[in-house]
């Protein structure tokens, strides 16, 4: 695909490309520049707001977000502890319930933020604040002084630091993230009848999260403190927090704007979600064809799960559109993703209609395993009682097959991982060398020219040895829980049933160390890409294929690898983002550490408790491939299917010369993707168009998006294109005043309103409460 001429690349005309070789902020030593650091000089709530066009993507963190702070205001209040623990328990229970529902829903951070704001404001209004009551109610939840939400202040009001609110959000969202450990324990229970002791299970869930947190603490110098690590998807969250809590007439306007947009999407979103689902994805081509041609549905369909890849289909449902983050992703990230999808339309269609991988024998889109005759593959029919492969049974049943589109998708995800490693090494070598060359990441003194980090220096930092202690203790607990079946006395202590005390570990200790080390390495690459582009790569397929060669014929070990080779890396990313959120809102680092630990503990307990209750009471429905309208085990079934396919049959499917060997070798092929573009940028004339275009190309994003479409519903992407260019190009460059004041707040309002109504609908009519209510047929 050729790139458009320079006149059609607006981002290249008005934007200075910020490459890692050149990304130094263009201002003086901030530690000595009082004008740029003094809180009194940095007030985002004044009516005068910078209308300068944001040139570099990372500059949104400086021009959109305020650096002001009041270190004398409390954070660890009764209100924070009460709401933090309460919302953590609520969020972890709700997210676990969603895991076993047919609907694919999550408890988002914005959901926690809005609920915390409503409850915190209510507590500030109801609980007295005089006398001894001041310990329960230290003052208004949003700002100091008496002020109604919709009454404009006559005089300036001192701000209340939003760190109290931020602490609640971090604790609740940490607990609300369903740990993969819980899902794997559920899979062992459902499909292998391995029922771990409750204490072992809870410690396993907690330890798998804490290992990632320990890694994150050691990457702060590289992935939290600097300005280039700005985490685009978090800008809207911080912008909302500051708008809700900071005083001044402009923030009054912002609060009013937020609630108006929030209400508008709240009342709109129920229409495409419930009475008029046709609006979820509109395909004029499919409507005109009226179902006469399968290839039209395959290429242009987008309204139903696994219907088509959505060419020229548009959506009016923000719940779908927000998956592309069109208001918050930098335009460079979005353009690379759109290029990848454009190539994907061609590649996926050609692979299927040229009958590559015998594609025409199977469905157009599906993530299931199929037998040679196109029926669903019976994975358990090839296993012995000890869950290893029986060669005789395998010869009778045959090898499973993937659909061609799913095969391409897995290849592209692995292309992307290989490309990401080399991309980071080439473009971020200077930063990597600085951070790791002299073990600078273990130092407590850092020369980092970020105004938000400069403000945080007044607070005691979390010592590195805290994070290292968390890492090694959690690693030891994880090894102990995983290999408990090696202990002959395990049955005596009722840790696991007697039939599993065979001396064979669920996952060997050396394998845990190996995949934890792999996670440490991958977390650096994944973190740099996510921190600078907002884009999160997937490593699940690559890790499972590697595990298949290390643990051949052992599906349980391959399943457990997800904890240490996959989940650990993503827990690292989650904590890094929360650390950055704390830096943006000036939450003291030690308070961030405490609330993350507390949220993880509460989440692990309630994740397991709710999971075992659901599994024990709904086992038949969860084992059924279709499930019911109320309960479904599709998430857990996915873990089991992939562990069988890759664990039991990894060498038979992915070794060189086998049917799907290209999926495994795609990782190594992807290593070459970034090199040509880096060479062009490195050796072409600095500042030339070809140099800028080469720097603009992000091969990990393009590679992944080529295979991003063969999943679920795809009606949102063309809406994302329109909204993304309107916001991140037209509004940013032509209406910078509006963009700086309202773009990220708009994203937060749309996300928050749509997530709240989806939560209401899930329990009111979609069956999450136990009773589904269909809309009358019209």
Automatic annotation (TrEMBL):
Coiled coil: none annotated. The keyword Isomerase does not apply. One of its GO terms (cellular component) is membrane. It is a multi-pass membrane protein. One of its GO terms (biological process) is protein transport. The keyword Transmembrane applies. The chain crosses the membrane at residues 76-98, 110-127, 168-191, 198-216, 222-244, 256-271, 335-353, 411-430, 465-487, 508-529, 541-563, 593-615, 660-681, 693-709, 715-731, 743-768. One of its GO terms (molecular function) is oligopeptide transmembrane transporter activity. It is found in: Membrane. Keywords: Membrane, Peptide transport, Protein transport, Transmembrane, Transmembrane helix, Transport. InterPro entries: Oligpept_transpt (IPR004648), OPT (IPR004813). Its main location: membrane. Belongs to the oligopeptide OPT transporter family. This is OPT oligopeptide transporter.
């Amino acid at each position: 695909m050729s790139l458009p001429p320079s006149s059609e690349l607006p981002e290249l005309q008005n934007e200075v490309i910020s490459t890692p070789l050149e990304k130094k902020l263009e201002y003086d030593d901030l530690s000595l520049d009082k004008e740029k650091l003094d809180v009194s000089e940095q007030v985002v709530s004044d009516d005068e707001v910078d209308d300068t066009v944001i040139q570099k993507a990372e500059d949104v963190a400086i021009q959109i977000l305020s650096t002001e702070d009041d270190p004398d205001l409390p954070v660890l209040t009764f209100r924070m502890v009460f709401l933090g623990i309460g919302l953590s328990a609520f969020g972890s229970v709700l997210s676990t319930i969603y895991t076993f529902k047919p609907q694919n829903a999550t408890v988002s951070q914005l959901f926690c933020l809005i609920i915390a704001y409503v409850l915190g404001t209510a507590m500030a209004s109801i609980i007295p604040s005089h006398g001894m009551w001041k310990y329960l109610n230290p003052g208004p939840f949003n700002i100091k002084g008496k002020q109604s939400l919709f009454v404009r202040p006559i005089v300036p009001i001192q701000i209340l630091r939003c760190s109290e609110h931020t602490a609640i959000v971090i604790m609740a969202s940490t607990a609300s993230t369903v740990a993969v450990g819980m899902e794997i324990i559920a899979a062992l229970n459902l499909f292998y009848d391995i029922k771990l002791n409750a204490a072992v299970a809870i410690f396993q869930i907690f330890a798998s999260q804490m290992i990632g947190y320990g890694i994150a603490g050691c990457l702060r110098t590289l992935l939290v403190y600097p300005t280039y690590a700005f985490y685009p998807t978090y800008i809207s969250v911080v912008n909302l927090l500051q708008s809700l809590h900071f005083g001044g007439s402009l923030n009054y306007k912002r609060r009013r704007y937020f609630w108006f947009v929030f209400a508008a999407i709240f009342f709109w979103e129920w229409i495409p979600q419930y009475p008029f689902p046709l609006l979820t994805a509109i395909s004029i081509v499919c409507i005109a064809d009226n179902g006469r041609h399968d290839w039209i549905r395959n290429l242009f369909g987008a309204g139903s799960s696994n219907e088509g890849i959505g060419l020229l289909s548009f959506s009016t449902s923000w719940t779908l559109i927000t998956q592309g983050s069109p208001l918050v992703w930098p335009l460079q990230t979005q353009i690379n993703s759109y290029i990848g999808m454009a190539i994907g339309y061609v590649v996926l269609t050609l692979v299927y209609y040229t009958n590559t991988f015998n594609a025409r024998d199977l469905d157009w889109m599906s993530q299931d395993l199929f037998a040679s005759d196109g029926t669903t593959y019976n994975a358990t029919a090839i296993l012995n009682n000890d869950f290893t492969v029986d060669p005789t049974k395998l010869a009778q049943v045959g090898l499973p097959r993937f659909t061609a589109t799913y095969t391409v998708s897995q290849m592209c995800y692995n292309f992307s991982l290989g490309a990401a490693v080399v991309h980071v090494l080439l473009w971020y070598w200077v930063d990597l060398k600085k951070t790791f060359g002299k073990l600078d990441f273990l130092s407590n003194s850092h020369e980092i020219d970020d105004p938000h980090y400069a403000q945080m220096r007044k607070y005691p930092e979390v010592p590195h040895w805290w994070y290292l202690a968390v890492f090694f203790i959690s690693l030891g607990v994880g090894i102990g829980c995983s290999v408990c079946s090696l202990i002959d006395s395990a049955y005596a202590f009722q840790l696991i049933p007697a039939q599993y005390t065979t001396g064979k570990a669920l996952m060997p200790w050396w394998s845990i160390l190996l995949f934890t080390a792999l996670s440490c390495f991958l977390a650096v690459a994944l973190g740099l890409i996510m921190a600078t582009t907002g884009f999160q790569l997937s490593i699940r397929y690559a890790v499972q294929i590697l595990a298949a060669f290390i643990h051949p014929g052992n599906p349980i070990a391959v399943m457990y690898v997800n904890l240490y080779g996959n989940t650990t890396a993503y827990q690292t990313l989650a904590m890094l983002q929360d650390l950055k959120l704390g830096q943006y809102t000036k939450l003291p680092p030690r308070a961030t550490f405490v609330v993350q630990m507390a949220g993880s503990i509460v989440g692990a307990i309630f994740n397991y408790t709710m999971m075992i209750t659901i599994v024990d009471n709904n086992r038949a429905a969860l084992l059924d491939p279709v499930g019911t309208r109320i309960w479904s085990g599709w998430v857990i079934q996915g873990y089991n299917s992939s562990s069988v396919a890759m664990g039991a049959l990894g060498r038979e499917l992915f070794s060189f010369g086998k049917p799907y060997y290209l999926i495994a070798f795609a990782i190594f092929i992807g290593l070459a993707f970034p090199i040509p573009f880096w060479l062009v940028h490195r050796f072409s004339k600095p500042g030339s168009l070809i140099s800028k275009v080469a720097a603009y190309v992000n091969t990990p994003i393009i590679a992944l998006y080529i295979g991003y479409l063969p999943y679920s519903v795809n009606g949102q992407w063309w809406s994302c294109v329109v909204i993304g260019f309107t916001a991140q190009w037209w509004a940013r460059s032509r209406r910078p005043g509006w963009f700086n004041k309202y773009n990220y707040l708009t994203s937060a309002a749309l996300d928050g309103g749509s997530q709240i109504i989806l939560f209401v609908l899930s329990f009111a009519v979609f069956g999450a409460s136990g009773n589904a209510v269909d809309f009358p047929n019209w």
